[in-house]
Amino acid sequence: MALEIGTEAPDFTLANSNGEQVSLSQFRGTPVYLNFYPAAFSPVCTNWFAGIVADDSPYADAVVIGISVDNKWTLAAFKQQMQADNVHFLADFHPKGEVARAYDAYLDQAGLAGRCTYVIDADGVIVDVDQVVPLETPDADRLLAALGACRA
Predict the structure, then answer these.
(1) Is 116 a catalytic residue?
(2) What kind of fold does domain 22-151 have according to CATH?
(3) Which listed residue (15, 22, 34, 45) is catalytic?
(4) Domain residue limits, the chain
(5) I need a surface site. Which of 17, 70, 118, 143 has the fewest CB within 10 A?
(6) How many angstroms separate the CA atoms of 152 and 148, rounded?
(7) Measured distance CA(43)–CA(45) in Å, rounded
(8) Residue 21: which H helix or E strand, with range?
(9) Of 57, 60, 62, 71, whose CA–CA distance to 117 is shortest?
(10) pLDDT for 129-143, tens place per residue?
């Protein structure tokens, strides 16, 4: 079960697709659209991020983060293929799934992050979350409405 709305989002530091360390706390003051997903290049994940890349206007003035247990080289190739310059892909590779576990988004039986999207306001508080089974996608309309309210 996902973390509760109204709670502070746990801070974390992970390597991005360039190998640089990125912390959630460095984005304080800006809303965050935090996506946990099972695997780069999988069909559902590719389609989810293709939608984000195709029209990034709903994410203006926000930070979009994607976290999977893939390694940084896989995420670099995924980012390049997706032409996803507006997305920070972070590797929850080692210790495997540690951040996904902190967000109750890790699937132990599969050894992967599940599919879960959090909307975090500029103060670091979770304002919406949608956790679904890996072959489904979160309710983007509802989540984007929550993200828009963070910027209002």
Answers:
(1) no
(2) Glutaredoxin (3.40.30)
(3) 45
(4) 22-151
(5) 143
(6) 6
(7) 6
(8) strand 21-23
(9) 62
(10) 999 999 999 999 999
